[in-house]
TrEMBL record:
Superkingdom to which the source organism belongs: Bacteria
GO MF entries: endopeptidase activity; metallopeptidase activity
UniProt record, GO biological process: CAAX-box protein maturation; proteolysis
Alphabetical keyword list: Hydrolase, Membrane, Metalloprotease, Protease, Transmembrane, Transmembrane helix
Protein name: CPBP family intramembrane metalloprotease
Organism: Kocuria tytonicola
Residue ranges constituting the CAAX prenyl protease 2/Lysostaphin resistance protein A-like domain according to the UniProt record: 158-248
InterPro entries assigned: Rce1/LyrA-like_dom
Transmembrane segment boundaries: 30-57, 77-97, 118-137, 157-178, 190-207, 213-231, 238-259, 271-289
Pfam family, one: Rce1-like
């Protein structure tokens, strides 16, 4: 949150970064994200049950066999796994729509909506970074004596491609709305510094991926990168783009037989390309934001005016006699209990004045100025 000095009479404003956007809603309360999270989980469980039941009726034999085998490159398993995660998106939106903050679009960006042009720009940047780093890695492998892996499309390639294009982006958007949106803004209600909103959701995001320690660290690196670009760009678009390009790239490579999508173990060397990918993307996004002032990174809201002092009834307005006093010596005060004026007789005083804490301020002398008494001189004729 950033406070700006205001000119006298100007509306009071506050400026918030993305993780503090919940405070832009005048009706927010500190406990609201806890109820919102409970509602999110409840809606998600309900949608998941309906989703699995519908899919089981549509593909009973395939779903039962594929779930036991758990081959992620089977079209039914792929759709079930990524589609079930995508259900987090409507669940989060229903929870936010029910409880606030308002407007609903604050979950996406400081502008209160998805900035589609910026999303596509970030998607292009992420795609270029992934292409350069991956092609560079392949080139280094070939120069080191490696042999190229032949392209072998897996069975059900076209069904998988449809899921990659339609379901995977929704799955990535859903995870960003929950981990870089809901959780970051929940932390931002209570803790001001953006580091808390960026780092605290990372362990939860890592636990959602069944990898070994090296795979978990790779996920953690990416989570930090997505948190950084979310804070710096004022919205989820840059994180969604990076997440979508990463998941779509892995899926497409696996569909072509170039990587094993079911592999859950890694190696320390896997962290190097992960660091390069995410560092390059974060640097480019930060550079683009500086070059594009139209990309809003904060939201400024007008605060409600302070409550006006209670209006005194006409019967207890300042007495006319005191109002008409031109000497500047008469005094009047308001009784805080009755809000009625109490007149301090000007012929008495001085009065000791103290502030609200009882500290001595000075003397208030309401006594009229003493006019010099007239002198009387007997008439004389000038003779002594």
């Amino acid at each position: 949150m950033v406070a700006h000095p205001e000119a006298p009479g100007a509306p009071r404003t506050r400026t918030y970064f993305y993780h503090r956007l919940a405070l832009a809603d005048r009706n927010h309360r500190w406990w609201m994200p806890l109820v919102e999270g409970t509602l999110l989980i409840a809606v998600y469980l309900l949608l998941s049950i309906v989703f699995v039941v519908v899919l089981a009726f549509a593909l009973p034999d395939a779903v039962a066999a594929d779930l036991l085998d758990a081959d992620q490159l089977d079209p039914a398993v792929f759709f079930l796994m990524f589609g079930s995660v995508a259900l987090l998106l409507p669940s989060a939106l229903v929870a936010r729509l029910t409880l606030g903050p308002r407007p609903l679009g604050l979950i996406f960006s400081v502008t209160g909506r998805i900035r589609w042009r910026w999303l596509l720009t970030c998607f292009g940047v992420a795609a270029v970074v992934y292409a350069v780093v991956n092609l560079g890695g392949i080139g280094l492998d070939l120069l080191g004596g490696g042999t190229p892996t032949p392209v072998r499309p897996v069975p059900g390639f076209w069904w998988l491609l449809a899921s990659v294009l339609l379901v995977v982006p929704l799955q990535c958007a859903a995870e960003e709305v929950v981990f870089r949106g809901y959780l970051a803004q929940m932390v931002g209600r209570w803790l001001k510094h953006p580091a808390w909103a960026i780092l605290l959701p990372v362990p939860l995001f890592m636990l959602g991926h069944a990898y070994d320690i090296w795979g978990q660290l790779s996920v953690g690196i990416m989570a930090v990168a997505m948190g950084l670009v979310t804070w710096r760009t004022g919205g989820l678009e840059a994180g969604i783009a990076l997440h979508a390009v990463n998941n779509m790239s892995i899926s497409l490579l696996a569909m072509a037989g170039l990587v094993d999508m079911n592999e859950t173990s890694g190696a320390p060397a896997d962290l190097i390309p992960e660091l390069l990918l995410n560092a390059a993307y974060v640097a480019l996004v930060f550079w683009l934001v500086r070059r594009r002032p139209a990309v809003a990174v904060t939201r400024t809201v007008v605060l409600p005016p302070p409550p006006a002092p209670p209006m005194l009834p006409a019967a207890v307005q300042r007495p006319a006699a005191i109002a008409a006093d031109r000497s500047g010596l008469a005094a009047y005060v308001v009784d805080p209990a009755t809000q009625a004026y109490m007149v301090l007789p000007p012929q008495y005083g001085p009065y000791s004045v103290r502030d609200g804490q009882g500290r001595y301020v000075g003397l208030l002398d309401t006594r009229p100025a003493v006019e010099p008494a007239p002198t009387y001189t007997e008439p004389h004729d000038g003779h002594h």
